[in-house]
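#struct-pred

JT: dropping the chains for the assembly here, can someone run the whole complex?
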Amino acid sequence: MTIASEQKTPSERVPALVEQFKGGLAAPICLTWEWTYACNLSCTHCLSSSGRRDPGELTTAEMRSVIDELRAMQVFYVNVGGGEPTVRPDFWELLDYAVAGGVGVKFSTNGLRLDAERAQRLAATDYVDVQVSLDGASREINDAVRGDGSYSMALRAMENLAEAGLANFKISVVMTRHNVPQLDDFAAIADRFGAQLRITRLRPSGRGADVWHELHPTDQQQREIYSWLTDHGDRVLTGDSFFHLNALGGSPLPGLNLCGAGRVVCLIDPVGDVYACPFAIHDAFKAGTVRAPGGFAQVWRSAPLFAELRTETSGGACRSCSEYSACQGGCMAAKFFTGLPLDGPDPECVKGHGASALAAVHGGLPRVGTDHSRGRREVPLGMPSVRVPAKLCDLSPLAGTA
Amino acid sequence: MQQGTRADASPADAPRVSDDLDAGQEPEIAEELLVEEVSIDGMCGVY
Amino acid sequence: MTQQFEPGCGYELNPAVALRPEPFGALAYHFGNRRLSFLKAPELVELVRGLGSHRCVSDALTAVPEGRRDACLRALASLAAADMIVPQTVRSEEA
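RK: done, full complex below.
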């Protein structure tokens, strides 16, 4: 795995870390790993379209084998999610196996299994971090997206974690049109439990494609998010979800402004398929499978998709924009699932280029690759849908700008 | 890896990596610091 | 709480830090504060790995070519400030 490094003379510059990232690292720094498509909830915007277990999900033995690979590659930690990962009966065994081998585990949960006893157990385990999902600072706003009872379940889990002394667990919020006004309230909830707030961007991925046009923040709200992060964000994590907002000018949000997909991070899904990122579960972004000879390591090192992502791109249509260096063209998953070309603007481009491009999209959008939703989705699969925003003025980039 | 430390200090607390040359020093060649720090939060998909 | 970096003292890689080789040096990830550092020279990586086996930093630096010692010292100071390296644990003999 290691490339023999020649002795460098003092005058030879070593490229900055961000440049190393762009060319891809020999192993991921971390990666997202969805452990099951099964879920007790049916959130309307679920990025993995979860609900029902897939019959082909990795067995316990296969999971351990992947963990062994990650340990050998010295991946620092995994971001475990799903579906609801704690639904897996072997969740706790696998968690222990990973951390015992030096692979940290940060897992995302709706709180289902986090009773007092498990919270205490987690608090006593090193290299574990917990992230509880919450999409509303009030029951009404949260449960509209995540379902009846989900708010209570999440808060009960938070109480248990706080009571058990698990310091600084994360509360993760997907920013929507309905919860942007609640940013201060979310911060208060985090303070109340000694937790750290994390806000992320709603992407039109998975079931998110069905609700994106109604749920994604308006342009004005994007400015509010940016402003709030600038004022309060030194303790708030963003997973760099909002670097596209740096094009608004002003002080840049801290972070790398870099999409790490296929270069620094990637996704392993419950059946062992490897994708560029968790928001891009679709054949177009599938790099391979851990079940093939060579396992995950082979995919990471040699997948043609990843080689392509590690090649410097021209920036396409965005290259000539004055803000390109701030936003780097935005999020490829957001573009893909709204039918926009990957070498063009992000659908939420703050300069308005995305809105213009969206208005020109006709015909069918990319269909969700794997759908494990329970019950009916809002939009039947396979039907071409012309996505026209309800009100074009919602997307107007010029409203209210100086 | 045996023990870890609990996350106590917030990422904003500790100072960023900086060149700690004394004021009186004047390097002829601006030598690059051999350590570069990057915010781990600066990447999409990182928790 | 980071103290002043003292080359006359012994330091070691913080047990909470994972050090991983890369083509140009190494990545260091601190599990406690989630900070990520990039060590940009193989000799710095070797220096950091071997720190704990020397009585003090100055001793460890004798293995580094003289022209590189200043740069390595500054690098160690910044690693100490980031809690990546810490004063060696005093192994007390007393009960």
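JT: nice. The mean pLDDT of chain C is 90. Chain C touches chain B through 30 residues (CB under 8 Å).
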